[in-house]
Amino acid sequence: MKKSIAEIIGTFILVFFGCGSAVFMGAEIGMLGISLAFGLSIVAAAYGIGAISGAHLNPAVSLGMVVAGRMSPKECGQYVIAQVIGAVLAALSIWVIASGKADYSVAENGLGQNGFGAGYLGEYSLISALLFEIIATFLFVTVILGATENGAPAAMAGLAIGLTLAAIHLVGINITGVSVNPARSFGPALFAGGKALADLWVFILAPLAGGALAGALYATGTTRA
Question: CA 45 to CA 51: how far, in whole Å?
């Protein structure tokens, strides 16, 4: 229960800071600011609740841990439920706050949801979205597994992981808005509806594939010291 609560809070931090920056301040801070918000949210959560749950905050990370042999499937399931709850609560909070602005509408302004294709940011294709999300999640989970393994400098793990997420956003916001996290995508899509829900399968399937691939590679010892 303690770990689940930590994952709820940590995932709330990630989605509220990251997606909230896009909704409330996107025009002012731009893509660079949004990228930093996502990265800094990971740093905050890692140092805030990392000692309790490991601060996965992401079903793709938890799956990677299972494949790498560092987590049981049962515990992974508990983590995923908590992560989705945290993401939904954060998206709901953003929507309620944003609705207090006279000219805000979910249909027009969104909730920081992910997407691709016509009408979404750079209008990249489905193939581009899938490839980016798989590659980016693979790299992200590889860094997490390496930064949190025995012998790695524990004090630096949160910073390394947060900076990696910020870098991924700097590369990919214009492609998909950057998911690399099914829970992060599910929360905003649930309230945005429409295209966000229709596109959601990409942001569940691709990150899970990338996370599993990183875990499998780690299990072989290829990416371990």
Answer: 10
Q: Tokens representing 94?
A: 């953003």
pLDDT for position 10: 97
Q: How far apart are CA 3 and CA 56, in angstroms?
A: 10
- What is the per-residue pLDDT across 66-107, written as a single tens digit (0 to 9) for each? 999 999 999 999 999 999 999 999 999 999 999 999 999 998
CB 193 within 8 A of CB 115: no
Residue 186 in tokens: 């599910």
> Tokens 């870098």 label which residue?
167
Report which of 66, 175, 196 is spatially closest to residue 123, judged by C-alpha positions: 175
Tokens 């690399």 belong to: 180
25, two tokens: 């301040």
Task: Region of 140 please: left (phi>0), alpha (psi -120 to 50) or beta.
Answer: alpha
What pLDDT score does 225 carry?
A: 67
Q: What is the mean pLDDT of residues 184-197?
A: 96
